[in-house]
Amino acid sequence: MCFSIMPGNIIMGFFRRYKKFAQSKSLSSWFSCLHIRYDPTRFRKKPALKETCDGRTLKNQEDVWHHNAWDNVVWDEKQVEAAEAKLKLNSSSFMDEEVALKYEKEASQFWDTFYSTHENKFFKDRHWLFTELPELCSEHIESSSATDATKASAPCQLAGFRILEVGCGTGSTVFPLLEANTLKKSFVFCCDFAPKAVELVKSNPEYDPARCHGFVCDISEDNVKFPFPENSLDVILVIFVLSAISPEKFSSTIVQLSRQLKPGGRIFFRDYGRYDMAELRFKPGKCISEHFFVRGDGTRVYFFSQDELRKLFEGAGLVEEQNVIDRRLLVNRGKQLTMYRVWIQCKYRKPT
């Protein structure tokens, strides 16, 4: 009799656990159902930017079709000249000022439409962040002191580690952070100037007001009222967001963000670099100003150089820890196409 009952109980238990996983859409919840510790760093993608590791390097051009992607690709002079020729063509004339002003005034509306259309299906979760910024992992986070705890009047004040993500989108960074920091010693602030994006973050089953606070905010505006005091953040994440802002506002935006860092706190930056495939693909008439373009959906994008980023961050009083170019070669082996991506990754620290 026992043998006839046990298989049914096991199957029903499995389906109950699967149903809970399907509702939560969280790997950590699924593994907790099975009483297994989930390691969010085990299967994550790695940008292969470590100086001690070459990643997957293309050493023989004949091997280009053997993989879908190659790391740390070196450009020769001919490739640089070809990129400059394409850029000269699509930037030969700038957009009319009145049209450009429309994209500036309605920037949040264009992004709001973008998120209304794509919701959370466009950007993949950024688990690779824990490789590039190990300070984000829970084992590196210290808990708040007992004195701080007695003074705390909100969950964020109990946190020993405070993170702000600007331009959070639908949570491709926020939710991996919440999954990784299972010890609940950190608190994540996240903002976006598209109300639809923040709405999608808050409607996610993994959104926990005790550990996260999402709010609508345009960080390019002057004197933004943040839901935390100045000099209180450990890390600020600026990932593919500064490029959506008008270049005239870069300096004031970085200065404003640097004021929110506590001494020793860091800004982690990753965005598009010069001659990225996306920049070279723009058609004439889409250029607002040098290296600043409008996409077909009305959203804007800027392509950075290392030197200008160094001037921006150091001009805000921050100390450089990292400023590297990540050149990737993506390969479509079916169509025999090669695509060159260029990103810049930086890490700057506020002096103690």
From TrEMBL:
UniProt keyword annotations, A-Z: Methyltransferase, Transferase
Keyword Methyltransferase: yes
The species this protein was found in: Daphnia magna
Summary of the function given for this chain in its UniProt record: S-adenosyl-L-methionine-dependent methyltransferase.
Residues in Methyltransferase domain copies: 163-265
Top class in the EC scheme: transferase
Assigned protein family: Belongs to the methyltransferase superfamily. METL family.
Coiled coil regions, renumbered to chain: none
PANTHER family: METHYLTRANSFERASE-RELATED (PTHR22809), TRNA N(3)-METHYLCYTIDINE METHYLTRANSFERASE METTL2 (PTHR22809:SF11)
Protein name: tRNA N(3)-methylcytidine methyltransferase
EC numbers for this chain: 2.1.1.-
